[in-house]
Amino acid sequence: MPIRVLIADDNRPFRRGVRLRLESTAHIAVVGEAGTGTDAVAAALAERPDVVLMDLEMPGMNGIDATRAVVAASEGEIRVIAVTSHGEDHLVRRALAAGASGYLLKTHDSSQLVEAIRAAHRGDALVSSRVTRSLLAEVAQRRVTDDDRARLASLSPSEIRVVQLLSTGVTSNEQVAAELVLSVNTVRTHIHSAFKKIGVTDRTQLALWGVRLGVELDSRL
């Protein structure tokens, strides 16, 4: 079955260009387009795509609010990739907090876009390297709190090893499984258990939490 994609952007030529690129890619099908945040939410709930490419700066309901609405209404089954012309830190933070599974700049080429769609569909996350460097630098400077330490103490040794790998840039379940000599299903179980214990909703947030814990995370291994 192809990965079903919805394109949400108020720039019609941009939507057309993305559609043409994706329609020439194997195993990806574009199931609809939307030009506003409100229309994006309605189309996502009607078409039930696997992945939504969501522009963050649309008229009316913005892409961040639309992302939050789609993720909440679908209970996380529909994955959203935030796509924008800008990589400002505050937009990245807000998009990820709203539930976005990835963050790409519009300047990325089609191969990176396809990679992000496939990553989101399999439950991974892809964030622009330029955005990642800025975000990680900020996160690394934040203080570790007593709440963080309590959450860390609640993780099993296997969950800690998974979080550590995610925080070093390993993105796919298959890579984590190979590194830890575990099955992919076991890795998924550890990741979702860590989500609940840490209080995050996706792999990017979990990886950033691991970056902030840094040495304290390593000391538990």
From TrEMBL:
Which residue range or ranges hold the Response regulatory domain? 4-121
| GO BP, sorted A to Z | phosphorelay signal transduction system; regulation of DNA-templated transcription
Residue ranges of the HTH luxR-type domain? Answer: 148-214
- 4-aspartylphosphate is carried by which residues? D55
Q: Please name one Pfam family that this protein belongs to.
A: GerE
Has keyword Cell membrane? no
Give GO MF terms, alphabetically: DNA binding
Q: Which domain of life is it from?
A: Bacteria
* Alphabetically ordered keywords of this record: DNA-binding, Phosphoprotein, Transcription, Transcription regulation
Which PANTHER family did the record assign?
A: TRANSCRIPTIONAL REGULATORY PROTEIN NARL-RELATED (PTHR43214:SF24), TWO-COMPONENT RESPONSE REGULATOR (PTHR43214)
Name of this chain's protein: DNA-binding response regulator
Q: Which organism encodes this protein?
A: Microbacterium enclense
Organism phylogeny: Bacteria, Bacillati, Actinomycetota, Actinomycetes, Micrococcales
